[in-house]
Amino acid sequence: MATRQVTVKDIAGRLRLHYTTVSKALRDHPDISPATKRRVLALAEELDYHPNSIAKNLKNQSTHTLGVIVPSIKNDFFSAVISGIEEVAYGREFNTVVCQSNESAEREAIHLRTLISNRVAGVLVSVAQTTTSGSGFRALQRQGIPLVFFDRVYDDIEADHVVVDDIGGARRVVEHLIERGYRTIAHAAGPPNTSIGRDRCRGYLDALKAHGLDGDEKWIVHGGFEEADGTAALGAFRSRGSMPDAIFAVNDPVARGIHAEVKRNGLAIPRDVAVAGFGDNRLSAYLDPPLTTVSQSPYEIGKTAAAMLLRRIDEPSHKCLCETEVIPTQLIVRKST
Amino acid sequence: MATRQVTVKDIAGRLRLHYTTVSKALRDHPDISPATKRRVLALAEELDYHPNSIAKNLKNQSTHTLGVIVPSIKNDFFSAVISGIEEVAYGREFNTVVCQSNESAEREAIHLRTLISNRVAGVLVSVAQTTTSGSGFRALQRQGIPLVFFDRVYDDIEADHVVVDDIGGARRVVEHLIERGYRTIAHAAGPPNTSIGRDRCRGYLDALKAHGLDGDEKWIVHGGFEEADGTAALGAFRSRGSMPDAIFAVNDPVARGIHAEVKRNGLAIPRDVAVAGFGDNRLSAYLDPPLTTVSQSPYEIGKTAAAMLLRRIDEPSHKCLCETEVIPTQLIVRKST
DNA sequence: CTGAAAGCGCTAACAG
DNA sequence: CTGTTAGCGCTTTCAG
Q: Which residues constitute the signal peptide according to the record (chains A, B) (predicted)?
């Protein structure tokens, strides 16, 4: 079993060649005669040779690996983004290592450190909810490792971004609520330290303002990104006295929490309260009534982000003329509004 | 930016120490005096030193990395398994690299190769649907890299397994159908070259037999694991003349395809046809009517599989006294039956 | 076309 | 306690 793994030297020895010759032959270097190449290749196959990329990477001072950090892969959105990233990476013969932060800033930092230690060629991050310091990202950049943020951005860092049009998407869905005739529109907002939390709230306020409805602070509740936060948000609205006509939630899970809690309170959707989300999770189409939401093409986001990162890797020259790609969103109207 | 990364030598130079001394200091080796350690640590911090794990791995001839290959991470089941794996790996300071085969045997083989080349410490695989050769797995084992299969097993390979009790779970759900009074029970089966396809079919047949119902070949249709396969299966049953009372699908997506198609045909669930699945996907609870299914604790599977693998890594001695862990399943009765 | 020598960054064994 | 030497497997440069 643990028979030492085959190296270029082993195959060189058998062939009475120098091991550098073998190394060149394996990489199809023009120096080497076709005949030798054939012999080398044949023996490599026979001996079950597998090149050691660790040694190769050490020598070359580079890896063909991209690091990806997401809050959680069990989340339609992120897993679709990852697929997009992998698709692009795969086409360029890059590997991908996926890490989950579980929304913990600490784990995120640890992952960042091991990615640095493993000298990945570049990193894609969607920031954890609890991250309040950019030092891990800065460390990455000090090592000259390109960084691209997607979806959840850390603002104080100069880096490329790929985001969805959160403001526009939020504005659009709130306008839709207004058009439908709802007037008291509440917002179950995300954590204010996240870009998407802030931007979606901004879009909400913009829409109200544009239509002459004033955004009353009382109709905004800040929470996290989970179903439980939706449940809590509804409780908060109820405790503030009267219920709103409609609630726009920062994302689909929160909307789902509200959706369930509204029904649990014996109210009808959308008759008593309309509910809208953001993100178009798979599940949302299956709720009863199905959820009105905003679709953000996650697969596109992943492909775009990976492409940006690879561009940086290819041309490390460009100083930070950071770019931001905004992926458009699409309103998906269903029965909940 | 691309200022060469800091190495032990750099910090040794500044401190007028030998670089091996620094290396030891950094790893808190007992040889080194506390005073020196402090100086080294302080300067390492100041210079923003990050150990190069590539070099370390090359030297040590080992990595702290586990490879995981799954068909697709955008699948509740697999993403939960991965979380379980990561949890255990993380606790032992192992990294995890996740690869998706997209059900393609070819991609699976490529991933296997790069995992070998990267000298991962061990590999966890859930086999792609189209895999018909075990040569990639055998190559892995020839390199002395421990392998654990979970959920979808490749039979011809001697390796540890973690599977759910597919036969028992299938038998249980079919018995439930029988108890409910259904008599003509069809099975939308999986590909016969997959272990879960075969085992769930076996459980189905066992249950029928135990209750004196004969398994008529006509009520079994083989297909894949996707929603579309469910749609197709229903078409097949209809074309065979009369409809069954109840259909047990190899997994939840297939059940969902059937569920939707039944409703599209204007039939009522469960009045006209009962539908049951396997896997307890998140979505299944949200269908109308919600789907009766079998829960297989994916998080447990992941933890168990990772623990088995780590045990192999710790003690490479054990020749292949391969073990199989069977994780119990649980019947989840909902309104669709 | 093939061979020799050097070195990537780190660790382990041994000497001082 | 600190330094020396050697080497992990590979690639690169320069000679033959």
A: none
Please, what is the Cα angle at A198 between A196 and A204, to 5 degrees?
A: 100
CB < 8 Å to B288, chain A:
286, 288
Name the residue in chain B with its Cα closest to that of A61: B54
In this prediction, residue B1 has a pLDDT band, given cuts at 50, 70 and 90, of very low
Q: Which of B68, B34, B64 is nearest to B51 (CA)?
A: B64
| Local structure of residue A187 (DSSP, 8 states) | E
Smallest Cα distance from A240 to chain B, Å: 31
Residue A111: CB less than 7 A from any atom in strand D = no
Q: Looking at residue B201, what is its pLDDT?
A: 96
Fold agreement (B1-49, B166-296): no
Share of chain A above pLDDT 70, in %: 97
Q: Is A58 on the interface with B (CB under 8 A)?
A: yes
3-state SS string for A152-172: CCCCCCCCEEEEECHHHHHHH
- Domain segments of chain A as ranges: 1-49, 166-296
pLDDT confidence tier of residue A2, bands split at 50, 70 and 90:
very low
Tokens 């009765």 correspond to B333
Fold entry, domain B1-49: 434 Repressor (Amino-terminal Domain) (1.10.260)
User: Token match 């989970």: residue?
Assistant: A226
Taking only the tens place, the pLDDT of each residue in A25-41 is 998 888 888 888 888 89
The answer to whether the CB of A162 falls within 8 A of the CB of A149 is yes
Helix, strand, coil percentages in chain A from 3-state DSSP, rounded to 5: 45, 15, 40
Strand pairing report for A324-327 and A293-296: unpaired
Helix (H, G, I), strand (E, B) or coil at B164: strand
B45 touches chain A (CB under 8 A): no
Contact B125, B194 (CB under 8 A): no
Q: How confident is the model at residue B2, as a pLDDT?
A: 45
pLDDT at B4 over 70: no
Indicate whether A1 pLDDT > 60. Answer: no
Q: Which CATH code, of 3.40.50.2300, 3.40.190.150, 3.40.50.1000, 1.10.20.140, is assigned to B166-296?
A: 3.40.50.2300
Q: What is the pTM of this model?
A: 0.88
Would you give the end-to-end CA distance of chain A in angstroms? 63
Are A169 and A278 contacting, i.e. CB atoms less than 8 angstroms apart? yes
- Interchain contact B92–A (C-beta under 8 A): no
**Does the beta-carbon distance from A76 to B76 stay under 8 Å?**
no
Tokens of A126: 């969607």
Residue of B nearest to A66 (CA): B97
User: Which phi and psi angles does A212 have, rounded to 5°?
Assistant: 70, 15
- Looking at the DSSP assignment, which residues form a beta bridge with residue B66? B96, B122
Q: Residues of A with CB below 8 A from B286's CB?
A: 283, 286-288
Q: Which two tokens stand for residue B237?
A: 């049953």
Q: What is the mean pLDDT of residues A302-323?
A: 87
Q: Percent of chain B beyond pLDDT 70? A: 97
Evaluate if the CB of A40 falls below 7 Å from strand D. Answer: no
Mean pLDDT (chain B) is: 92
Angle at B32 between CA B28 and CA B34, to 5 degrees: 80
Is residue B150 within a helix (H) or strand (E), and if so which, with residue range? strand B147-150
> A76 falls in which pLDDT band (50, 70, 90)?
confident
